[in-house]
Amino acid sequence: MNRFEYLRPESVADAVKALASSADARALAGGTNLVDLMKYDVARPSCLVDINRLPLRSIEETREGGLRIGALVTNSDLAWDPRVRKQYPLLASAVLAGASPQLRNAATTGGNLLQRTRCYYFYDPSTACNKRNPGSGCPAIGGVNRIHAILGASDNCIAVHPSDMCVALAALQAVVHVEGPRGSRSIPFAEFHRLPAEQPQRDNTMEAGELITSIELPDSDFGPNHTYLKVRDRLSYAFALVSVAVGLKIGDDKIVEARIALGGVAHKPWRSRGAEELLQGQPPGEAAFDRCAEAILRDAKGQGENDFKIGLARRTIVRALRQAAAGTPQNQSDKSVR
Ligand code: SF4
Question: Can you list the alpha helix ranges (DSSP code H) found in the chain?
Fold first, then answer.
């Protein structure tokens, strides 16, 4: 049995103090990933800091016309908030594509950013894994790697980030607010998650003792021309093999602005500014969509079992762009792919 301390602070300052007190301390919110990791003996925190009493459960409008989402807002409350549904339907759609209703009722916005990869080896302490045990090796390379990365992988790790919500947050250019022993700071979403490189044990750029307090969404008018298209092995309660979040602004039959982010393909939500720029000024159509997909996947590399993901990603990107341009977003209540 692994013994651990359990603390339940009443303020953000006390929570940060508790998290900074030990390198192994972990924040506990919905517990939908951390508790599993503890049961599997993958995570062994010396201290659990239960943050559920902190005042981080509200969604507030910002002066700039966006929304600030408290870290403890559940996935369900986020997806069904009328302001989110109206102004950020792309985000609502992505959240509803993830997990199950029961999990979404417990899982939190902050926790979603911190969930760990679903690589089979990572969850099996009897195997080597550089993410779980740095320096031990990566058996997924040359092993069972059907769900693994085709972009941004390293010789040390080819895992992917499992979130749906984060793919939409990347496309919407959210900002993550954190509080830590050295004060508060704001991290642009593109800089929050990291690629594995030499340190696959580090999923993100948070420092020791820091706590996510909120996620801010800038003003957005991608309303009608968006889609979150998720392709998976079954239509419910499965992680994405490939997912694509698209937001388009269209005027005078031309694409004025494009945002596109991919999930299930890399260690972080994958965004290609170069590919987005290729769409600008173009009439929405197959030629432009094909060029965009080609640009995003130019450096894609399969690992054997997951080679199929490159073609799948190409088709999913084109289809997502087509859906967004036509204003016919994927319906996450009726997930059938037509
Ligand atoms: Fe571990 Fe990453 Fe390799 Fe999976 S892909 S076994 S998480 S190092």
Answer: 12-20, 34-39, 75-80, 82-87, 89-96, 101-106, 109-114, 165-171, 273-279, 286-296, 308-326
Q: Which amino acid is at 202?
A: R
Q: Does residue 259 lie in a domain region? A: yes
Kindly report the CATH number assigned to the domain that includes residue 32: 3.30.43.10
Which helix (H) or strand (E) segment is 260 a member of? Answer: strand 254-263
Ligand 1 geometric centre to CA of 147 (Å): 11
Q: Which residues constitute the domain of residue 256?
A: 226-326
pTM of the model: 0.97
How confident is the model over 6-52, as pLDDT tens digits?
A: 999 999 999 999 999 998 999 999 999 999 999 999 999 999 999 99
Residue 331 lies in a domain: no
The total number of structural domains in the chain stands at 2
Distance 287 CA to ligand 1 centre (A): 37
How many angstroms separate the CA atoms of 334 and 226, rounded? 17
